[in-house]
Structure formats: structure tokens, C-alpha cells
Amino acid sequence: MSTDWRDYIRRIEELASRSGLAFHPVDFEAVPDSFMMEIAVYGLPVRMPHWSFGVRYIYQLIQRRMGHSRLFEVVFPGNPGHAYLAASNGLAENILVTAHVLGHADFSRNNLLFRRCQEQVSEHIVEHAANHARAIQQIIETHGAQRVETVLDAALALEQHIDIDQSLRRERYPEYLEEPKVLADDTFRKRFAALDPIAAGAVETKKRAPVPPHPERDLLWFVANYAPEMESWERDIFLAVREESFYFYPVFATQIMNEGWASYWHARLLREADFIPQQSYLDAIKCHSDVVRPIAADAQVSLSINPYHLGFSMWEKIVERDGLEGARHIMEQDDDFAFVRNHLTRELADELGLFRYSARSDGQIKVLEPDLTALHEALLSPKYNFGAPVVSAHHVRTDGTLELTHDSATDGRGLDLERSRKVLDYLQRVWRRPIVLTTVNQAGSTLELTAP
């Protein structure tokens, strides 16, 4: 990789600032392609050890060798942000990627969902996750790799099951139910209510609140706080996984917006960067075209979905319609749900050739429906509930049995029964009491899965 790329970083940053982007400093680093894949698989440069990451690494390696994927950069929001660029990138690719990263940095600093999650977790997530990894390594040395792996199996199986509407540092449930307040609506009742309880002959009784007092979606938090025999080090692992899930959630929930915003800005900055050599500019524009080109899918949604392509096209239309100020307001306020529903118009969907379809084994394509709302939901349905089925802790019986319920009516998803049984098995090993999960089968009848 040419070292000339670094000479352009400061000038691209200055151009981005003059163009209205507001971002925290970004540390850029070129790393070997193998390390890039490790970062993409683990989600962070240093993360807690677990066998599942190795499985993901092999999958990514196969995809790359088949020519299905290539990583130009991986960026981590924060203050400062961290951007890792592939050492195999050429000068033009790195110029484009630098501008792209600054678009991400502007998005993550100013989008409300990103800001809320970073304020709760850490603006130094790379260092924060490295601390988690070191702490877990110490736990392994104390309690042994096998016991720690058992806990990580359960925690990482539940990593999507958080409640982003709750605070990261939330309190445990109240131990007792609140006494209902009786309004004193006449003189006698007012005088009686004012009497000392002993003088009035009242016996104060408190009623224990049920656990949980309401269906609880944040399974990582619930298990960490209410598993009957969980040790403190096991609880620490669950809460570390939960913290990192809070960090990853906005990346997942704004992918179309975020990649589109970064792509819009790298294209705009390239056009305005008159200091870039002509050949490098042409090569970077070709790279841009490769990044935002439509990519056809197997089924479900036509051209589905290259988030760079869809997001870039939507932001171009929004800037054309509302100006940069209006686009920035949308960027700050929305996630992908609001973005797609409010701004993916019928006109743009037709222009991009987006529609729901099915592909037969003989290669024939059948359009299922041109309805815009159905298109929106087809694009967004994989994003509901962090991509996981809606499963809640419903009740803990007196013998400690944990009852879980799957809300299939809300999420419209069935459960993968084989995977669900594995997850229940992992969870039961840390809950250390029986677990019952109520769901429905394909016929819509009630089905119970149990562990052990």
C-alpha cells in the first residue's frame, strides 16, 4: 500500500469539516487482510474468546475465497473513533475509504440512537472491550476454560436479547408491591387515615412482587440478576456481553442510513477534493461505483439489499428534496425503521427496481406484490428486535423453574426448533433449574420446549 494515502488524511478531514461534517477525531491504521477479517468476525479488534467466532471466521474466509466479499475498512465509533484499513488497498481505495469513514464518524457522533448507546456504554469501546477480554482471561485462569466457555455459550446465545428502551445500568425490580392508595373522600376517612397504624389496629403486611413483574425482554439482564445460583464472575460475563450488545445495536439498527450517509459523503467529498491526482480520482470513482452498485439476492426483495446502494440513493433524493439541513435533521433523529418507512417512496422503489418476488428452482421470477408497505416490511422485518425472535421471561415458579414465552404474533417469526433447543440447553446450565419455553408450531398450536 502506498504511504501517500496518509498525506491526504488531514486535507480530506479539513474538506469534510468545511462541508459541514462534525466528527470526533479518527485514528486510521492499515492492517493485514487476515486481521481485518478477525476484526469483522469478532466485531472488535480485541474481544472475549469463544469458539463461535472461529466458526464465523471460517465462513468469512470461504466467502472471500469465493469472491463474494472483500473488506476495505472496519470502523468503530467513539471519541476517538478507530478505522482499520486493509493493507492491500490501493491509494485510490484508501482515499475513498478515508472520506467514507468520516461520513460514518459524523453519523455516529450526531445520530441520537448512537449517542444514547455510546453515552451508556463507552466512547472508548475498543479499549472497553479489551478490558472485558482481559477480565475474562483472568476468570479463565481462576475457574478454568471449560466453566467459562459454558457461561459464554449461554451469554452469546442471548446477545441479541436486550431491551434497548431500558437503561444499561438499570435497577433490580422492587421486592414488594406498592400498596394501593385509598383516597380519603370524607372527614371520617381523613381522620382514620391520619391515625397511627398501631392505634388504628392496623397490621401492616407487604406483598412480594412477582418475578418478573411484567414480561421481560432483556434476558441477559434478567438472568444476570435473577438466576438462582449464579456466581458473581458468571454475572460479570453476562453483563459484559450485554454492554457490548448495547454498543452493537445502533450499528445494526441504522445500517441502511449509516452506510448510505457515508457513501453519499465519500462521493461528495471526492467531487470537491481538487487536490486528488486525476488518475487516483478516476480510480476512486470506479471504486465508489462498485461499492454502491445493486446486488441481486436469492429471493424476498429484488436487488436486496446492498445497504450502500439503497441508502446512498435515498440520501441523494432527500438532499435534493430537503437540502443538507433537512437531511441532517433526518440523520440525527431516525433509525432504519423511520428512514425506510418515511423516505423510501414508490417513485424511488420503482426507479431502483425494488419489489417483493419469489425465485423458482428453474430460474423463473414471479413478482409477488408491488405494494409499497409490503416492500417496507420485507426490508425491515429482519431488523425487528435486533434480528431475534421476541422471547420474554414470563414467570419464575416457586421451585425456580423459568418460564419463557415466544411472542410469535408480534414478531411474525417462527422459531428454529433445533437452535432453540440448543439455546435452552446453554441457558439451563447457568440458570441451574428447569426452563420451559412456550411457542407455537407450524399449525399455530401451542408447543412447549423444555430443558433439561
Structural description of this entry:
This protein is an alpha+beta fold and 452 residues long. Among the domains are: 125-162 and 211-251 and 389-451, no CATH class; 292-385, no CATH class. Helix content is 53%, strand content 11%. The chain contains 18 helices and ten strands. The protein has helices spanning 4-18, 33-42, 51-65, 91-110, 112-120, 125-143, 145-157, 187-194, 219-226, 232-253, 255-272, 278-291, 307-333, 336-343, 346-352, 372-380, 408-411, 417-431; strands at 26-31, 73-76, 81-86, 300-301, 356-359, 365-369, 391-396, 402-406, 435-440, 446-451. The chain has a four-stranded mixed β-sheet. Strands 1-3-2 form a three-stranded mixed β-sheet. The relative contact order is 0.10. The model is unreliable at 53-68, 199-203 and 296-304 (pLDDT under 50).
